[in-house]
Amino acid sequence: MNAVRPGAAAPLSPAASVALSTYFVTIWGSGFVITRIALEYAAPFTYIGVRYAIAFAVASLAFGLRASWPRTRAAWGHVAIAGLLSHAGYLGGSHYAQRWGLSAGVTALILALQPMLTALIMSRWLHERLSTLQMLGVAVGLGGVGLVVGHRVDGAAISLPALLAVSWALACVTGGTLYQRQFCATVDLRAAVCIHFAVTALVMLPLGVAFEGFRIAWNWQIAGTLLYHVVPASIGAYTILHLLLRRGQATSVTSLLYLTPPVAALVEWAVYGVPPTATMWLGMAVACIGVAMVSTSRAAQSKTPIVEEPS
Fold this sequence. Notes:
Layout: H1 14-38, H2 44-62, H3 73-99, H4 104-111, H5 114-124, H6 132-149, H7 160-183, H8 189-212, H9 220-247, H10 250-254, H11 260-272, H12 278-295, H13 298-302
């Protein structure tokens, strides 16, 4: 990994980090249940395309006009690739996995492998060294996730297309997160968000027309899910994720994804009346311990950000 560049952004304060992380985990975890509702009334590509077209319009008016846009064709390309991986690839795969019968819990479990993949890639190829405590925390967090949703896994309901779709989503979100960190570190976050939304909409809308007949039922349920996914999720959670990545260690940040299945289980309880079992409560506690081990280890606290915040 390259040395710290002059003018690198200081790490976030503990209070700010906790607040932003709590928001991200809550919104990201709830999104699995909101997606389940949305897919009852819309096809995946169509819904994602509409969601991101609206998100682009909102983001452009809210902060895009004041953004500092990339100055080179290469920079535009890097941001577009990161956006397609993190948004179009990830959501397209995860939405179709659920449409093809994979439960939200199993989908969350498989996607929760991202911190392990991130840790492997960062330590093996990108030279971000992890402490023994962090590596143990990654394993503990995954074990907690397994306890939360593992008992709901129904092997008979898992199809090959669904597994391929969720595996694609896992590869895309992992690759997009690392690509954003490596190649888009100095791009204004406001511009990056707008570009991500634009390229995702430009890809997903034609796919929705070509393969799904642009199937969407316009009702209050779709309006509610779109409102949720556009503002607190697309604009809020993704922006916070990239901000946390710029200010800290990639493994520590992505370990927060271990907490999203427990949040999804609690939201599912509130919406569909499916109460968590004692095993799930235990799994939630174990997942929290794993995240704490990764995020509060001496290595994570002393890690200086390798990227600089754009002026």
